[in-house]
Specification:
By secondary structure, this protein is mainly β. The chain has helices spanning about 20-30, 125-130; strands spanning about 85, 100, 105-110, 130-145, 155-170, 175-185, 195-200, 205-210, 225, 230-235, 240-245, 250, 260-265, 270, 275-280, 280, 285-290, 300-305, 310-315, 335-345, 345-350, 360-365, 370-380, 380-385, 390-395, 405-410, 415, 425-430, 435-440, 445-450, 455-460, 470, 475-480, 485. Strands 2-3-4-5-6-7-8 form a 7-stranded antiparallel sheet.
Length: about 500
């Protein structure tokens, strides 16, 4: 269970939960390559998703028309006909896109051809999710901000850039970082120096601010270190949060001999030692205390206010829920604890049940009072629905997988679980309302079920037809060799 990032149908924070199975990554990589361009198809399609203004679209722009008709299998949870579509590129290319909430962002190169998703992790789910474009030298691109519901181009920006990366602004608002680098030549004594600056835009193409591009622990520029309106600076075991739009820099507290204070930009999460939490959650940032000094003090997670720097919550001050094993001194046996989610004034915390068990006890706390309001047992590896109401047991990184189960997040009630001998369903994605669960079987075949009743809706969906979900609108989208298609959520 994780916090939402608003980009991948609930976009999952995989630093907290383990990496998806190889099969799921294969599907995501195949589906995420989004499609477009080619002046083919019916109607008066002119190659940019508009029809010359004949049809009104969002923001007064023309909606995308003239794309191919969808001829694939029905997708439960979505309308039978595509809301809009775009044809593939010549030669079967798969142009890329970034999900910015109600906007899908595409990019054309100088020749007018749409670029594919490229970056350090190309071919992986996280790479496709974060990077639209990456190159060794700045290139001229035209960014197209398209309305997710209609395909209308709501804004175009001409930029010169070597990377286009999805990020977030304050309170998790979707944004994009457009970075440009320059190199100063050596004077014969000093080495040539490369500097990189990113300009951030919101989902509608409005400028938010600019910042130097931070470097990762290997001294490589990484625009994903621009998150939640902050520049994340890494210095050994220190993490600093520098506000891009002005304000006070905050430094994460990490104490103990084994403190790591690591940040995972692909998920937006940070580690202490046996602790884990979102780096920034709304108005709060995390801290990690007492990373084992070989004494009986257990490691704790804190939340502090970004505006004041004052600590407002800690696992040290709250009741440990029933089901978590304690030692003879009343301390929990396992030091592993994770803040899963902070939302609506509540904190969801996962406590390891004991030092040997694979189960976790999930507990809800009120941020202000620290009161424990509910708890339940659930697995460590889980997939959260975009609505935050349901969670499905996920395939672990290693070991056998005996199938999934689904719980209600609010009270931990298990709705159903697979039995021994059944075909194991590895969950991939919920629809936005959580009503439908898409997954894979061992044969890399898509299987679709009613999320609450486990009724099978489709038993043999091609793996490249598992749609991505735009959580902000509920629309689904996918790319096949026939084109790029978006679908409105079904009414029932």
């Amino acid at each position: 269970m994780d916090g939402t990032d608003g980009t991948d149908g609930g976009i999952r924070q995989r630093g907290l939960l383990r990496a998806r199975s190889a099969a799921a990554v294969k599907v995501v990589a195949a589906v995420t390559g989004l499609v477009l361009l080619s002046a083919c198809g019916g109607g008066s399609f002119d190659g940019d998703g508009t029809d010359g203004g004949k049809n009104a679209g969002s923001g007064g722009r023309a909606a995308a028309t003239g794309g191919p008709a969808y001829k694939g299998p029905e997708l439960p949870g979505f309308a039978k006909k595509a809301a809009w579509s775009l044809p593939p590129t010549e030669g079967g290319g798969t142009p890329g896109a970034l999900d910015l909430g109600e906007t899908l962002l595409f990019a054309k190169d100088a020749s007018g051809k749409y670029v594919d998703n490229s970056g350090p992790e190309k071919g992986s789910e996280q790479g496709e999710k974060h990077f639209l474009h990456s190159s060794d030298e700045p290139e001229s691109l035209t960014l197209e901000f398209r309305d997710a519901k209609t395909g209308a181009v709501t804004k175009s920006l001409k930029v010169k850039t070597d990377s286009v990366t999805a990020t977030t602004w304050h309170d998790g608002a979707p944004a994009v970082a457009v970075a440009t680098s320059s190199t100063s030549a050596s004077d014969g004594l000093t080495e040539a120096k490369k500097t990189s600056t990113a300009t951030l835009y919101d989902a509608h193409g409005a400028k938010l601010g600019s910042s130097p591009v931070p470097q990762d622990k290997y001294n490589n520029d990484d625009p994903r270190l621009l998150t939640e309106g902050y520049r994340v600076e890494l210095d050994d075991d220190v993490i600093r949060l520098v506000p891009i739009d002005g304000g006070t820099t905050r430094t994460l507290t990490c104490t103990g001999q084994l403190a790591q204070c690591e940040f995972h930009p692909e998920t937006g999460t940070a580690d202490g030692f046996a602790t884990h939490a979102p780096l920034i959650s709304g108005q709060y940032y995390a801290g990690f205390l007492n990373a084992t000094n070989y004494d009986n003090d257990r490691e704790q997670i804190t939340l502090s206010d970004l505006a004041t720097g004052k600590q407002v919550w800690s696992t040290a001050d709250v009741e440990v829920p029933k089901g978590v094993a304690l030692d003879d001194d009343g301390e929990r046996q396992s030091g592993a604890v994770r803040v899963v989610r902070v939302a609506d004034g509540k904190v969801l915390v996962a406590w390891s049940a004991n030092v040997t068990a694979s189960s976790w006890i999930y507990a809800w706390y009120d941020v202000k009072s620290g009161a424990l309001t509910g708890s339940y047992e659930a697995p460590e590896d889980a997939l959260l629905s975009p609505s935050g109401e349901l969670v499905a047991k996920d395939r672990e990184e290693i070991g056998e997988f005996d199938g999934t189960a689904v719980w209600q997040v609010a009270d931990g009630k298990q709705l159903w679980a697979q039995a021994e001998g059944e075909t194991a369903l590895d969950p991939v994605r919920f629809t936005a309302d959580g009503s439908v669960l898409y997954g894979l079987t061992d044969g890399d075949t898509g299987l679709v079920v009613d999320a609450r009743t486990r009724k099978v809706l489709v038993k043999s969906l091609p793996e490249d037809h598992i749609p991505f979900v735009d959580a902000a609108t509920g629309y689904g989208y996918l790319s096949t060799e026939d084109g790029f298609f978006t679908f409105a959520p079904s009414e029932s």
